[in-house]
Amino acid sequence: MNTEDFLALVRNNKTLIFGAGYVADLLWEALQIHHAADCVTCFMVSRSGEQQAKHGLPVRLLQDVEPSDSPVLVAVHEAGRREVQALLDKAGFHERIFVYPLLHELIYGRPVAEKKIRLKELLAKQNPHHYWLAARLCGVFEQRDLYCRAMAVHSSRHTAEKRYDELQKLKASMSAQGYDQKYPILVDTDFRIIDGLHRTVLAACCGMTEIPARIVKSSPSYDRLLNDRNYLPGSRLAEFGLSAEDASVLRAMQALLNDSDQLCGMTVLPARLLTAEAAGKE
């Protein structure tokens, strides 16, 4: 389905959104941009929580919503696709659209360029005090618990676990077959990474000098959708529940990213980089 067909379907129906996390926020931003948000009746989730409303609409448990012919817009990360398909099938919701592949074009528009960009230049343009790439690198080096706790700052732990498992599959595939050119990362004209953080750090570990990228125009939506819980600034790690030891490991990862030549060919993090002395340097 292309974006035009998707918007036509939403505007011509009363739709429901399955999901109430970051991907649901992306979807809501997209619907607001295209003046289609008033077609949504509620958000649905599979687990009860404290959230009773989102964007002025009720958040309801899946089992409490009567199935209908209204399409369900599935706003979850691709890592959870199979699980969500099974949940919706069991609940009787058979008309659904997984929105993740469409969201970036709906929000940022079609790419203005598609080309390979220098990986070292891309890494150099990232804020050195934002540890979101460092958190992904924890996953590459199989620091599972820290990866999942860092990712759960802006998502659920359940989603973080799923994403860790998908990262290990991607790592194995890239190590054996190289980077799949059909899946470029997405950056804006300011070199801010919109999608592809995991692929970026894996590419650096594999020693790639260039990475395929789609480039979109910079948009104010970027700042509306991303905040410190996504970026993981070093100054707020304790506030987000990460310990001093966690911070040391993340600083070690960040030091590697700041001097990306060290990463080439690494599959295991050397123990020396986790010492207090090495990790404390930024």
Model description:
The chain folds into 2 domains: 3-107, Rossmann fold, CATH 3.40.50.20; 111-279, no CATH class. The chain is built from 13 helices and 10 strands. It has helices at 3-11, 22-33, 81-91, 100-108, 119-124, 132-140, 144-151, 157-177, 197-205, 220-225, 228-231, 244-258, 276-279; strands at 15-18, 40-45, 53-54, 57-61, 72-74, 96-98, 113-118, 185-188, 193-195, 210-216. The strands form 2 sheets. The chain has a 6-stranded mixed β-sheet with strand order 3-4-2-1-5-6. Strands 7-10-8-9 form a 4-stranded mixed β-sheet. α3 (81-91) links the parallel β5 and β6. The model is unreliable at 276-282 (pLDDT under 50).
Task: Describe the protein's topology.
Elements: H1 3-11, E1 15-18, H2 22-33, E2 40-45, E3 53-54, E4 57-61, E5 72-74, H3 81-91, E6 96-98, H4 100-108, E7 113-118, H5 119-124, H6 132-140, H7 144-151, H8 157-177, E8 185-188, E9 193-195, H9 197-205, E10 210-216, H10 220-225, H11 228-231, H12 244-258, H13 276-279
Parallel strand pairs: 1-2, 1-5, 2-4, 5-6, 8-10
Antiparallel strand pairs: 3-4, 7-10, 8-9
